[in-house]
Design brief:
mainly alpha; Arc Repressor Mutant, subunit A; 2 domains; about 70% helix; elongated; disordered N terminus
Length: about 200
């Protein structure tokens, strides 16, 4: 396709979407602004209006990934639950949505967290990365408010849940579940976690 002048509806979004597809297909090292420009049908210089270099594109890609993850989790879990049963359902929906997102784009997820924990991580990226954890914390707090789970540090509970489901997604992406269906393992992990969070019955 011949290169066209810059006139483009939303080149930044187009480049981010193309970059996300590219890294899943060919890996991060193969990502090229020139190739993305060719795929978008614009001149090789056009992407520089949005990303000064490949690193800037990767920064934006990681930040956008976290924003999209938060949107997916928010859509899956909705508003605060009013009952213990609804709180449990919301917790399960969160787990399934996270694992589904992770399995759909494992290279992007690795990039997101790798860049978030880099010593020179940008403030915007850190803020975007915190959104999904804050949403998880809110789900824990809401469940505590309706008595579905015991009082405890909601941040620690959220981190433990994240570690469990992120681990499942990582193992599944690497084909390391020894034939166990990922949905079954997500359900089992959710059951175990939830039972461990139950309030202790009063004597």
């Amino acid at each position: 396709m011949p290169s066209q002048p810059y006139h483009h509806g939303d080149l930044r979004r187009t480049l981010l979407e193309a970059a996300a597809s590219s890294i899943e297909r060919d890996g991060v090292d193969a990502l090229s602004l020139r190739q993305l420009a060719r795929e978008a049908g614009v001149s090789h210089a056009a992407p520089s209006r949005h990303f000064r270099d490949k690193q800037a594109l990767l920064d934006a890609l990681a930040e956008d990934g976290f924003r999209r993850l938060s949107g997916v989790l928010q859509e899956a879990t909705g508003s605060a639950a009013a009952t213990a049963a609804a709180a449990r359902s919301r917790f399960d929906d969160l787990a399934r949505a996270y694992v589904s997102f992770a399995l759909a784009q494992p290279t992007l997820l690795s990039l997101m967290f790798g860049m978030k924990h880099a010593p020179d991580a940008r403030a915007e990226l850190l803020a975007a990365g915190q959104e999904s954890m804050e949403l998880t914390v809110r789900i824990v707090v809401d469940a505590q408010d309706v008595g579905a789970i015991a009082p405890a540090d909601p941040h620690r509970i959220a981190l433990a849940a994240f570690a469990a489901f992120h681990g499942i997604a990582s193992l599944a992406s690497g084909g390391l579940l020894d034939g166990v269906p990922v949905d079954e393992l997500v359900t089992a992990a959710g059951d175990i976690l939830w039972r461990g969070l139950q309030p202790v019955p009063q004597a």
